[in-house]
Structures are given as C-alpha cells and as structure tokens.
Amino acid sequence: MGQCGITSSKTVLVFLNLIFWAAAGILCYVGAYVFITYDDYDHFFEDVYTLIPAVVIIGVGTLLFIIGLIGCCATIRESRCGLATFVLILLLVFITEWVVVVLGYIYRAKVEDEVDNSIQKVYNEYNGTYPDAASRAIDYVQRQLRCCGIHNYSDWENTQWFKQTRNNSVPISCCKLGVSNCTGNMSRPMDLYSEGCKVLVVKKLQEIMMYVITAALAFAAIQLLGMLCAFVVLCRRSGDLAYEPLIPGGTYA
Questions:
Q1: What is the full DSSP assignment across 175-198?
Q2: How far apart are CA 150 and CA 1, in angstroms?
Q3: Which of 11, 203, 208, 239 has the most CB atoms lying inside 10 A of its own CB?
C-alpha cells in the first residue's frame, strides 16, 4: 500500500510538471493578451497600475516553466534537495498567484470609476483624423464593441467635433455593420448603433481582468496538488523499501 501511494504520488508529480509547462505558456499568453487589449483601451483607463496583475502573471508563467523543469528532474532522479527546492518555489508562486487574485479583484472594482473619469475627456478630444490617438481609440472601440457615444449616439451632440463639423452626423464608426451608404447622419438613427460605449468598455475591461483572476485560481489549484504530491515523496522515511525510483539509476540526494 505504501509503495503504491508513493509511486502514484511521483507519477502524478511528473504529470503535473508537464502541466506546469503548458500552464506557463497559457499564463504568459493571458498576460500578453491583457497588455495588448489595454493598449487598445488605454485612453479610457489612466491608471497604469492596473497592469500589475498582468505583469505578475507573466512573471509567474516564466517561473512555472523553470519550476516544471526542476520538478521533473528532481522527481525522476529522486533528489530530496531538488524536491525541497521545487516545493519552496512552488509555495512562493502559489502565494504570488493569490496576490494576483486579490489585486485582480481590486482593480476590477476600480474599472468603472476609471472609465467614468476619462471617457468624457476622450470624446471631447476627438477630431476625426486618423493620426490623432484619441480619435483612433474611439473609432476602434465603437467598431469593435458596436456602440456609439458614451450612453448613446446623441452624446456626440455635446462634443467639440460635432459642433465644428455642423453636419448633424456622428463618426462613421457608429454605423451598424452591414449597413451600406451610411454617412453617420443622425436623421437615420436606424443606421447607427444605439448602445453607448461606456457600459461596454467597463464590461470588456472587467472581463479581461477576470481572465487573469480565473487563470491564477485554476493554476493555483494545480500547484496545490503538486505540493501535496511532493510532500508525500519528501516525507518518506530514509531506507523505506517502499520508495522505489521511477527509473533505474535514480539518486537519493
């Protein structure tokens, strides 16, 4: 029974280390996705500290790759020192991932306030020219999220751009997908997106932060199982006959 339990723990541990390598790639992808998406919405979100969870998750992903390498080598070679190092680093990463979860929830709660404070300013800076960063950001968001204005398309009437153009039109990016010959004229509201962008921007940013939180929680659970298996192997008694190497030539460092 003892031999079966220890061997099973070591087998699961090797398998988990392979999962850690896959997790490393997934976490780095999630972090990179947050960075890329933030770049598209950065005009609506001025607090750069919101990227801290993404930075940490990329760091954790990189560290997980190293952990997987250490764990595989230590488990296969039956190295006590290697397994102890593996458990210690895994514990630190486990704690870090919980920090990411907490920070993720904190910044997720701040999203709406951040958007409230910046969205009106961004719309007032719109001038309709492509080189202008604010104009590109608004046109991108309105096309991607299929929205128009802050609360609805009528919000454009209060912008400097609308007053200067004097053509009773909103930007072409407000035109519904598939509507031909749409000029953005407010006399044809059926051609325009009716939903405002504020709610959708908040929802999108909160979803992005939720990806980070979910990824951190999922892999924290896997790491907990990895630590438990490593502890089972480490806590064997010296000279226990039930402790058999997974491969011939294993060491007992």
A1: BPTT-TT---BTT-GGGB--S-HH
A2: 66
A3: 208
Predicted TM-score (pTM) of this structure: 0.73
Alpha-carbon gap, residue 13 to 181, rounded angstroms? 61
Of the chain, the percentage scoring pLDDT greater than 90 comes to 15
Per-residue burial over 56-78, b if 16 or more Cβ lie within 10 Å, else e, is bbbbbbebbbebbebbbebbbbb
Q: What is the pLDDT of residues 27-84, one digit of tens each?
A: 888 888 888 877 777 777 766 666 778 888 888 888 888 877 777 777 667 667 777 7
3-state SS track over 22-61: HHHHHHHHHHHHHHHHHHHHHHHCCCHHHHHHHHHHHHHH
Name residue 192's beta-bridge partners. Answer: 175
pLDDT at 47: 64
The mean of the pLDDT values for the chain is 79
- Residues across the chain: 253
Apex 196 CA angle, 192 and 198, nearest 5:
150
Task: Say if residue 245 is exposed, middle or buried (CB neighbours under 10 Å; 0-12, 13-18, 19+).
Answer: middle
